[in-house]
Amino acid sequence: MVHLVSSACAPLGGDELVLDVRVGAGATLRLAGVAATVALPGQHAGPSRTTVRVDLEGALEYLPEPTVVTARADHTAVLTADLSDRASLRWREILVLGRSGESPGRCRSGLSVRRAGRPVLRQQLDIGDRELDASPAGLAGKRVSGTGLLLDGSTPAAAGGPWWSRVPIDGGALTTVLADDVVSALAVLTTSMPG
Amino acid sequence: MHAAALMLADSRFPGGGHAHSGGLEEAVARGLVHSESDLAPFLAGRLRTAGELAAVFAGAAAHAGRRDAGVDHWRLLDAELDARTPSPAQRTASRAQGRGTLRAVSHLVLDTLAAATPRPHHPIAVGAVVGASEGAPADAALTVAYLAVSGPASAAVRLLGLDPFAVNALVMRLIPVMHTVAEYAVRHAGTDPADLPAPAAVGLDLLAEAHDRHSQKEVRLFAS
């Protein structure tokens, strides 16, 4: 069990964080955050970037706390995960469009997952474009976007409500939710992928 | 504009596109879209998310079709688009239209695509047809960018009884954005399929899944 702790408000503009995670066959790693990530502009102009690269033969549970995209943030988060045939992954991401009463800056969150070299899920979510944030095609005016990915060889049935869905995906399930607050988004993700 | 692209974008092309509303029927059922003024942001958002993804893959498929790519490349393109289309309802809708497109045309290049996958995704089928006819990636990308809004726009007229002239004016207003999307796609036409952009359309995915659940219980006009 490893907790990821930021020493102060982070990431700031100009920050570049790269985290390489390797979990061998038979090993289990739980990565968790202790507080929300707050994406803020730095003292000097410039984007911030977090890259997490996962090489997975064992089991990884990576459940960071929500990321709050503040007004002048310009943040990119990339998660790349390469799974072997028998690896298992549990991951979630919650993005919050600004602090209370605040419009979000920019955030691009990219996800790329392969199993045994085959593409499983590739997606990039852009936050902070007024038109896309408001459009029913994009974030439908919701303040919180949540994604949960469970790849453990299970086959949960498809389920959903007006603003969430769980769909089967290559030996697991993807849960997607749009909500007005973090508590509601987290409740959907937790219920949808218990464990 | 290449004539193959004109054929594919024509509403009289028998590819089965008329059966799909691109999430609009579910948005209407929920009251998210009920007039021309809220149809505009729906269409703009759709063009810049699902439309952009479709344009990227149509451009890449046209690039592949022009150089008569092999079965393995078509399989790779198809798998990469699948990975960018997590909603099963969206996958089914795209493959139904891709299959419909292939059935309505014939060309040796398309036999290779059909051998790779008999029900290819729609943007890949469109790109393959354009490329096989020696059209450019730009033609294919622009075609699917246009179709990303023309289908839902026509569905809105039928579902809400909106003024067809006012709705067409909305489509026309998006023409510069269609070109921006197509130009972006063209820049990626020769990119390794694994590295192609993957713009998400979270709202459309959720609308598509909800539409699918509802259509099992109640009568819907459109398949998606």
TrEMBL record, chain A:
One of its GO terms (molecular function) is nickel cation binding. InterPro entries: UreD. It holds the Pfam family UreD. Keywords: Chaperone. This is Urease accessory protein. It comes from Herbihabitans rhizosphaerae.
From TrEMBL, chain B:
Keywords: Chaperone, Nickel insertion. It comes from the Bacteria. The keyword Chaperone applies. GO terms for molecular function: nickel cation binding. Gene3D superfamilies: Urease accessory protein UreF. This is Urease accessory protein. It comes from Herbihabitans rhizosphaerae.
